[in-house]
Amino acid sequence: MGTGKRGLLTAAVTVVCAVTVLAAPGTAFAAPKPTPSTSTVPGTAPRAGAAPGAVPTPPPDKDLEKVRERLDRLYHDAAVATDSYNAAEERAKEQSARIVALAKKIVAGQRKLERLKDQAGASARAQYRGGGLPPTAQFLLSDDPQQFLDGAGTVLNGQRATTKLIGEMTRTQQELREYADDASAQWRKLDANRKAKAVAKKKIKRQIAEAEQLESRLEKKQKARLAELERQAAYKAQTQWLDTGILKEIDGKASQKGRKAVAFATAQLGKPYVWGAEGPDSFDCSGLTSQAWADAGHPIPRTSQEQWRQLKHVDVKDMRPGDLIIYFDDASHVAMYVGDGAIIHAPRPGRTVTVAGAGTMPILGVVRPDA
Asked: Are the C-beta atoms of 278 and 326 separated by less than 8 Å?
């Protein structure tokens, strides 16, 4: 959020809170409590008896496959938390914008109410200058027939104007109360989503820190062996997927917007994965796909789970370049299909945007943004 928007939001929140307190005495908003910091990360505490700063003992080579599986689980859990973080971030942006819009309505409503009050005051002052008698009384006491007829019209018009003025003031006051109530609800939701973001952020950092601590225990040759095991696992999964003959059935041609989305994703190759990032220098998995389609002129939901939930589902055999492949049962990862059985995706922390086989991870399904 830019500086100007932050300033507007701050002003909006001030107005909203002030109006809300006036409209509902006793209601107060507490700022979110800061998340307490921790000196250690669960699951990464030093071994009992280990001296501070001691080099961790690397696991035996025979356990490297278990290490790979453990790393996969940790990074998967971090991806799930990242999706939760991104979803809370999107909701917070929407609620912030809603609060700003409501604040503008409240300010406009207050100005309108002041104008109506001024009109009512002017009417009262005119009545006082007329001898303190209301127009109705002056009309009834008149002995002049013409004045009587003129007064009849004046009284009727005055009654209509007064009724309209009272009605406008009543409606404006009601609108202000509704705006204040809506703003209070949006503020509570904003506060809840800030807390949800904090919880997700803490989990992401914990999972990544544990994965990094696990990898730090490996010797150079073990890291090379682990990388080889990862390549072998990916190759095996991709081969099994291709052996189904699926690639012979996939012959869809990219749409015009699909080609633009693929071109955008291709231009990001080599940029680092950073959770919560939407570019231009780094991306997470759904940040890459959502920005690619936004660049193509077709905005889509920010998170992989919402992309799976909201976009049109298509059969794997019918997919075409630009379509999105959703992975894992919890829809925690997404990649862009680019043709010939390949995808472009932002894999996980420590990796960069890269090309991979479409079958290297368990496929949940395929969605088409521009269906």
From this structure: no
Distance CA(68)–CA(261), nearest Å, equals 32
Residues 6 or more apart whose Cβ sits within 8 Å of residue 60: none
Catalytically annotated residues: 285, 333, 345
**Top-ranked range on mean pLDDT: pick from 48-57, 134-143, 282-291:** 282-291
Q: Is residue 74 over pLDDT 80?
A: yes
Nearest in space to 44 (alpha carbons), one of 217, 176, 191, 189: 217
- Using the structure block, give the residue that is written with the tokens 């992309």: 307
How far from 47 is each of 32, 79, 222, CA to CA, in Å? 36, 28, 21
Q: Is the backbone peptide bond immediately before 42 cis, with ω within 30 degrees of 0?
A: no
Range in 53-67, 72-86, 139-153, 285-299 the model is least confident about: 139-153
CB-based burial, 15-44: b 16+ in 10 Å, e otherwise: bbbebbeebeeeeeeeeeeeeeeeeebeee
Write down the number of H helices and E strands in the chain: 9, 6
Residues 6+ apart with CB under 8 A from 213: 41, 44, 56
Residue 115: count other Cβ atoms within 10 Å of its Cβ: 12
Give dist(CA 292, CA 294) in Å, integer. 5
Q: What gap in Å lies between CA 227 and CA 232, rounded to an integer?
A: 9
Measured at the CA of 160, the angle between CA 154 and CA 164, to 5 degrees, comes to 140
As a whole number, mean pLDDT of residues 223-232 equals: 91
Q: What are the pLDDT digits (tens) for 78-137?
A: 999 998 898 888 888 888 888 888 888 888 888 887 887 777 676 666 655 555 545 554
Task: Confirm if 259 and 322 have CB atoms less than 8 A apart.
Answer: yes
> Over 80: is that where the pLDDT of 37 sits?
no
| 231 vs 222: CA distance, rounded Å | 14
* Pair of tokens at residue 144: 């002049």
How far apart are the C-alpha atoms of 266 and 338, rounded to whole Å? 9
Three-state secondary structure call for residue 327: strand
Rounded (10°) angle between helices 145-216 and 3-23? 120
CA 262 to chain centre: 24
Q: What are phi and psi of 142, to 5 degrees?
A: -75, 135
CA–CA distance, 226 with 261 (Å, rounded to integer):
33
* Residue-level pLDDT at 29: 27
